[in-house]
Write a structure and sequence with these properties.
The protein has about 160 residues and is of the alpha+beta class. It has eight helices and five strands. The longest helix has 23 residues.
């Protein structure tokens, strides 16, 4: 199965309830009704981070916030802390992602470096379908952030 990435749009009111511990974050993300609103980015999370930041684990704001950034909440989703972005941070991410073209991402796609950095899940990144896999999920992430920004939503980020 492995580690998969998830993004989950939420209202600022819901986020404030989570920060104040009035709402259980893990109960919320594992609730069947809520879970259907999350975006599952499968195992593409690390490759997307790499393409946006040129690093396995580091990066600059706002692009660092796309996958691995945010402020930690107390609860764990299984593979690390659940993190959040405020609605303002979501808007910054959406704006930055809107400026990046598929061509720019393709130029950043470096299978040898990705293998050296052990970008999860450490596949043979040279296979042509790997680029398509990453690009398809990248587009979903970009569109999900754009929709969240339009709705003034906050975002939960976590690995499971």
């Amino acid at each position: 199965m492995g580690m998969t990435g998830k993004l989950h749009r939420i209202s600022m009111d819901t986020l404030e309830g989570m920060i104040e511990s009035a709402i259980s974050v893990t109960d919320f993300i594992f609730d069947e009704e809520q879970e259907q609103h999350a975006l599952d980015i499968d195992k593409a999370w690390h490759a997307i981070h790499y393409l946006l930041n040129g690093s396995g684990w580091e990066g600059e704001l706002p692009l660092f916030n796309v996958i691995l950034g945010g402020t930690e909440l107390e609860e764990d989703a299984g593979c690390g802390p659940i993190r959040y972005l405020t609605n303002g941070e979501v808007k910054e991410v959406a704006s930055a992602m809107a400026e990046i073209t598929a061509h720019e991402l393709k130029e950043r796609f470096d299978p040898e470096t990705m293998s050296e950095l052990e970008i999860y899940p450490s596949w043979d990144w040279r296979a042509s379908e790997e680029w398509t896999y990453i690009l398809d999920y990248y587009k979903e992430v970009r569109d999900y952030y754009a929709e969240a920004a339009r709705n003034n939503d906050a975002m939960l980020l976590y690995l499971m």
